[in-house]
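dude i think i finally got it to work??
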Amino acid sequence: MNMPVLRIGKHQPRYPLIQGGMGVAISGKNLAGHVAACGGIGTIASVGLCHDSPYFTEKRNYFEVNQIVMREAVQNAREIAEKNINPMIGNSKPIIAVNCMVALTDYDTQVRSSCEGGVDIMISGAGLPLRLPEYTKDFPDVALVPIVSSAKAASLIARHWEKKHGRIPDGFVVETPHTAGGHLGASTIEQVYSPELALDVAVPEVVRFVSEELKVDIPVIAAGGIWDRGDMARAFELGASGVQVGTRFVCTEECDASLRFKQAYIDATEDDIVLINSPAGLPGRAIRNPFVSAYLDGEVESKPCFANCLSHCRYRKDRSTFCIAMALVDGCLGNWESGLFFCGSNAAKADKIEKVEQVIRDFFPNGK
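look at this
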């Protein structure tokens, strides 16, 4: 395999692999730290990370606690990485990223808090991160990577950043809604499988845009449905300089999710993986359980909103859906009856719990 070198801003991991950000609290400090320790880029998902924080007992509100928790999560992930350095990493340094959704009410303060905690890379999607350079201007070493599903979105972001902020992204994650997990980069469920959003279409188009129009050397990272070395090889053939892998890391010992959450992946069949309309206004991919089945039948009940966490939320607006924050928290905790278990299309391939090191070695046997 022709293995590319992945360099994002000033940061170069041992391997061209980013562990995907998965909320709520599925990819937290532990998973991110151990992936970074093995030579990949470990990613913390910022959304809802503070749901179980003891700081709530001090009567701070949700948004204040988010700022504290984000700083600490980045610092703790780095400590975990440095304490568990694996020989696989060679001479490289552990790299920690944060995935922060544009759709969050406190998007700006979560981004700043992550930077204050010492994050290396900010990855941002679920909306167009048009103001991301503004929020990170005091942290020039932090690399900025938007998530897009098409060259059109990549161009819109890059041109806006050039005009308003005098810079361009340090890379793009191109994520296909065909196979990705969680919230998907499509406007409707009908658009999820649009041919133009397939990786074999979108990745080459973004690569061409970067090289021929932007005329810069920045990486394009393929995401969605990357399960093994074969998937990675196909992404490299499309012109990608790296891959983002989420679902494969859920069933690892180091993943921050509960054992019951991981077991849901192991038990899932292909028929159990379905699309839903999220209260965030985006399609999402999840495992069918009693909660999701009821929602698809129009009978779902919701726990009360506790955070006001989304800038656009149908549940907060008219109570027509459910509080996604509470459903995702229940999922993370392993509450099968009431939780939302987001996943990628490959979740049914999970058949055991393994270690992060084993996953990395599956992608890069003998360090290559």
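Residues 17-257+351-367 form a domain with the TIM Barrel fold (CATH 3.20.20.70).
im so relieved honestly
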